Amino acid sequence: MTPVPAGRQKPDDAGPNVRRSASSAPQPPSKLTGSASSRLGDVVFRRLSVGSGILVSVVIALIAAFLVISAAPSLVDNEANFFTYSGDWEVGGGALKFGIPKLLYATLLVSLIALAIAMPIALGISVFLTEYAPKRMVAPVTYLIDLLAAVPSIVYGLWGILVLGPAMVPVNNWLVTNAGWLPFFRTPKDNVTNMSTGGTLLTAGIVLAVMILPIITAVTREVFIQTPVAHREAALALGATKWEVVRTAVLPFGFSGYISGSMLGLGRALGETMALYLIISNTGPIDFNLMESGETFATKIANNAAEFDSPAKTGAFISAGLALFVLTFLVNAAARGIVGRRQA
Question: What per-residue confidence (pLDDT) applies to 26?
């Protein structure tokens, strides 16, 4: 056999290597069928998304412009300070004298009562449904809670004044008798009748809590479900108990969604009209007494809708709507800031 010189290969040995290198060479990309339609779909979807965002922004801007234009003449003619005057709302005759402190106080107070009641309950329900409940129980309980969001607000109002209100009368009396030394449970100065019928700020806050509970629960539950499995398994691998997994993995991951859901519920509570219209309808003092009655921005407008017979009167009540609009915007902006910092 003839020896092969160093650095050279036999023709038989070179063939397979050449074929293997040729087969491994990158091939030119083939044309994908439907690529043009895919690009067209992306363009259409992008334009629809951008257009929807612009449309929503324009609608909100138009609503704000309408409120400002309608309220401006009455605000200019207002003889009292709109932000500090807490006297009677006077729009009859030729003089205008109105302010929002009492409306702002009642709106914020009943909304905070609702949040204080609904947020812990919604958190507990969400943790139970995602971590502890048997699978057969999750769907029925979820559907039952979601059904609360479908109940009309006027039904909640009727339930609040006809069922919950009378049931709260002995509770109100007990609170006044045994906890009257607190500023929250004193005997009302002007609205004793409301206390005897249960139409108090406390009752209104409880009704609002029931109304916003499904919103907070639904959002929180969906966020808790998205907790990465790796986070749960890592905690379990370190010897964590079930509650420690919830505390160290689930709650930190879902905190931003929990706050977002709570702010959505707060937005619902701030603008609620019919339920509160049936429960509280008398102007009360600013003394943080939950046994008093009061008027929110929404109920004030609804109670006086019959007085919209002149631009001056209408503008005065639209100014209350403008204040509610700004309040809701500020609450949502604050919620976005909290969520953004938490995510960062």
Answer: 53
Euclidean distance between CA atoms 81 and 311, whole angstroms: 20
Q: Decide: 291 and 188 in contact? Cβ < 8 Å.
A: yes
Distance CA 32, CA 82 (A): 66
Sign of the Cα torsion 271, 273, 275, 279 reads positive
Overall average pLDDT of the 116-123 stretch: 94
Question: What's the whole-number average pLDDT of the chain?
Answer: 83
Distance CA 277, CA 272 (A): 9
CA distance 204 to 107: 10
* Domain boundary assignment for the chain: 102-343
Spell out a b/e string for 161-200, using b for 16 or more CB atoms within 10 Å of the CB, else e. Answer: beebbeebeeebeebbeeeeeeeebbebeebeebbebbbb
Main-chain phi, psi angles of 240, to 5 degrees: -75, 145
Residues 230-243: pLDDT tens digits? 888 888 888 888 88
pTM greater than 0.90: no
The CATH number of the domain covering residues in 102-343: 1.10.3720.10
Quick check: 137 pLDDT over 80? yes
